[in-house]
Amino acid sequence: MSVPALPIVHSVADLRAAVKAWRQSGERVALTPTMGALHDGHLSLVAQGRAQAERVVATIFVNPTQFGPNEDFDAYPRGLEADAALLAGAGCDLLYAPSVGEMYPPGFATSVRVTGLTEVLCGAARPGHFDGVAQVVTKLLLQAGTDLAIFGEKDWQQLTVIRRLVADLNIDCAILGAPILRESDGLAMSSRNRYLSPAERAAAPALYASLRQAAEEIAARAAIDEVLARAREQILSAGFSSIDYLEARSADHLTLVTELDPATPTRLFAAAHLGRARLIDNISIPR
Ligand code: AMP
Predict the structure, then answer these.
(1) pTM, 2 dp
(2) What superfamily in CATH does domain 8-178 come from?
(3) Does residue 1 carry a pLDDT above 70?
(4) Pick the catalytic residue: 42, 129, 253, 273?
């Protein structure tokens, strides 16, 4: 059975009109923001949207303001047609794909900054990244006006930052997290996995394997600093060239955890470079 083509809008006005019509007829609408180059992880957000709402709107926008000057904005994989077909197959109702000019017209001058949460982990490794994320997500949520929006736990820090800004700015949209989808060998699905050569792809699961082992050892009360030092060695000897961070932090406020406290939900967070790709992952420490 062929899947009908997915309606695509490119302007804020068309997006608003569609969402408003659904909401006026009593339908709940979910938003799933992405940068495209879609994989099953993204499609799982759409599936969660379908479970929570009558309508799902996906967005595809490679946001220039969240990339640093030496990062992969130009190289980031793009393919609207293939992405639209995947979204249609996943049961998405509408795709919003604005241009850079629609999002940041001449004279644009407003920034959105979440302090504290953005100063650690990826925020420390990628200065300005979360200012760009906060800016674009604020805009997408206000543009769409949906009942809820779904973000992946793969980007746990991003999800935490978005929850904070939505609460702080009284944005009337429920934020839901979606579990990390992984390849069969454990590698977290990511658009950036496309950058990996076959040899790098074979080495890549070491990141999650090391996190999993470390999480189990820490849960069994091994010293966090010693466990993480061993995990670091494993990741580097698997072929990763450098590690931006490998840390235990509280799940909600991202404060550094040096000793396990059963009352504080804690996760391990890692970012490491493999060939051209910078891979991130995180895992909860069982309690
Ligand atoms: P991106 O296109 O990388 O900006 O991701 C768009 C959304 O998909 C974000 O909310 C991500 O956290 C989420 N996402 C990306 N990869 C995965 C994955 N492997 N599992 C679950 N969600 C994901």
Answers:
(1) 0.98
(2) HUPs (3.40.50.620)
(3) no
(4) 42
What is the predicted pLDDT for the residue at 265? 98
Q: How many helices (H) and strands (E) does the chain have?
A: 10, 9
Is the pLDDT assigned to residue 150 strictly greater than 70?
yes
Q: Cα(179) to centroid of ligand 1, in Å?
A: 10
Q: Which residues line ligand 1 (CB under 6 A)?
A: 34-35, 41-42, 44-45, 151-152, 154-155, 178, 180-181, 188-191
Q: Is 273 a catalytic residue?
A: no
Whether 2 has a pLDDT exceeding 90, the answer reads no
Task: Among 2.60.120.10, 3.90.226.10, 3.20.80.10, 3.30.1300.10, name the CATH number for the domain at 191-280.
Answer: 3.30.1300.10
Taking the centre of ligand 1 as the mean of its atom positions, its distance from the CA of residue 279, in whole angstroms, is: 12
Give 55-93 as a DSSP string.
EEEEEE---GGGS-TTSSTTTS---HHHHHHHHHHTT--
For the segment 187-228, what is each residue's pLDDT rounded down to a tens digit?
Answer: 999 999 999 999 999 999 999 999 999 999 999 999 999 999
